[in-house]
């Protein structure tokens, strides 16, 4: 990859604004070049799109970590312009193409145990008496995939009005965003519209970006709080995600504790057990998760700290339930999926490449309808208070089963060694293949052992997550996780093909 000519900061800035606007489906003039990039809620794929498009224009490698070290477009453009001009001068002086990648940025792992400190002023303001009747519910993450189905399930199974925190200029814009998200996943029902109330705010701000009066009014009238929002980005380090994922959780705990105490139902992640200390060990729902050394991804680190804050709040008397899903798959009946998630992008990219890596992965994905129904049901049981639940699939299957099924469906794919697959990945040059966008993320080496993301998730490095207590708690509810079999694969494939996400030609 050779730099062809230098580019000015203005040229690079215009390019990055164009890419970001297209990724977020907003007008370029809505992009503020001085706004922190993480404020735009970029997911990993969108962040990688910025990186790969910039690389194509500039002709040199751009480390993903630059998106944090130069957190807004203005500063990032200036840094890339300086590098571009330096490279051109080196070529003029020596006649030799220089090393064309910027120095990699490695972040040190913070002491997560020292990060897990809940504001001492946050304590339950009154006693709590359990009731399964819900009139007013507060929910974060309503513009996400799981959040849409949580809203739908709460509307279907309760009479509550759902107050949804959403980043928006006003309640009208917020309601429009919520409606569009529910429509996208085919769970919008006009008859429930009046029960969905948008609360403009921001997870990363004190009091969730809500006025003091509005915050206190909610605190006095809510019956339950569901916290499913988090910035999911596998590129950013802990420091970039802390404000939203950790401090945002603290503000949600503050809301649940203030004035009238109400249960906090927190959507965590099985990532809290990513430390190598748990590799190969059976982990049960109520087991402690004190080991954090060796959790390398910033997102996973924030989930570990945030759940610790929720546990501290529980120890102070706040009624809590904790729900730990794995990767969440599409709806088991309709196949409706989040086509922007990592799993779907990987599958699409590998199909287009024609090769899957022959690695020891287990698919423990759970359909979104199972996860949402289980969370809402379990949260409304008195016996659940103070407990954690594991929502990963009770009968996971090997990745090779998925590959075999796709072969039988007519997809011409092969399994190759992981080293071969990585070498092929470096040769993916078509921007239409999702792997092109994911390439820097997949090839980046993160840990002290210089492991890539796929290395970190090999079965030998993962714990065995037990969900037996969760299954017992769901017994008699009619909520059952559907098996990962040819029927489910067919449902998912039919949806992905019908939407044009997958091409069978």
Please outline the major beta sheet. Answer: 7 strands, parallel
Q: Report the count of strand segments.
A: 15
Category from helices, strands and their pairing: alpha/beta
Share of helical residues:
40-55%
The main sheet orders its strands as 3-2-1-4-5-7-12
> Mind telling me the CATH class of the domain at 126-337 and 368-393 and 464-490?
Alpha Beta
As a percent range, the share of strand residues is 5-15%
- The CATH topology of the domain at 126-337 and 368-393 and 464-490 turns out to be Rossmann fold
Rg, nearest Å = 23 Å
Distance between the termini: 32 Å
The low-confidence parts are 91-105
Helix count equals: 18
Q: What is the name of the CATH superfamily of the domain at 126-337 and 368-393 and 464-490? A: NAD(P)-binding Rossmann-like Domain
Mean pLDDT: 87
Taken from the alpha-carbon principal axes, the silhouette is globular
CATH architecture field of the domain at 126-337 and 368-393 and 464-490: 3-Layer(aba) Sandwich
